Amino acid sequence: MSTATRPRDPDLDHVRWHDLECGGYDADLPLWRELAAAAPGVAAGDARVLDLGAGTGRVALWLAAAGHPVLGADVDPVFCAELRRRAGVRDVPASAVVSDARELRLAERFPLVLAPMQTVQLLGGAAAREAMLVGIREHLTPGGVAAIAIVEDVEPFDVADAEAVAPDMRDHDGTVYASRPVGVTVADGQIVLDRIREIVEPSGERHVSSDRTVLDVLDADTLEDEARHAGLRVLPRRAIGATDDHVGSQVVMLGA
After folding, report:
1. If you average pLDDT over residues 25-34, what whole number do you get?
2. Domains of the chain (ranges plus CATH)?
3. Lower Cβ count inside 10 Å, N or C end of the chain?
4. Can you tell me the mean pLDDT for 114-123?
């Protein structure tokens, strides 16, 4: 629904919503930097990290700013173009390629593959995860490592509970974007997050829409079993602690 007819740039809005709802998360960044620093060839610039589900570059640009070359892969061409643009502006060694994590066909192998922020749970079931895991195996260098973040414990809430949740907001030169979670349901093997999005322009014009994100219910034991079936070695897990705004994550660690 929109209360105004003024045309907007849908790609710009798409990027800004992603940045608002995902770009501020940083609890996982120290772990990715630790892993990148330990990956053979990455610190010297002789090899790149592969960042799956890279979006606009939250992880890729941060690692690249620390001197670690990164290739981001995302199914969304708008996000990939924005990641490349930002890398150029910041003069950091990051790039992006449009690629579905379930259909990796990259002419390169990597000592480290990252799948942050529940990327693996967005794929749509066990068969899709298997395709991703096989692709990871085929793109790891000998001895390479993959790190896959998942969320196991999610507390459902409804519209009444959401009234106590402050929206995420950002001002872009007088145009305000606000995103408010209005419900989380867990049923039939899925975690469904619903949001209301609102844009308020300097003129007062408002644009209101809804957004839904669907994650597969998944635990670390299941993902590790699937990884073994795909021919990967299971390594000791890591963990990312909860914050005031985000639940904690398990990080399944896999080896070639």
Report:
1. 97
2. 18-153+218-255 (3.40.50.150), 154-215 (2.20.25)
3. N
4. 97
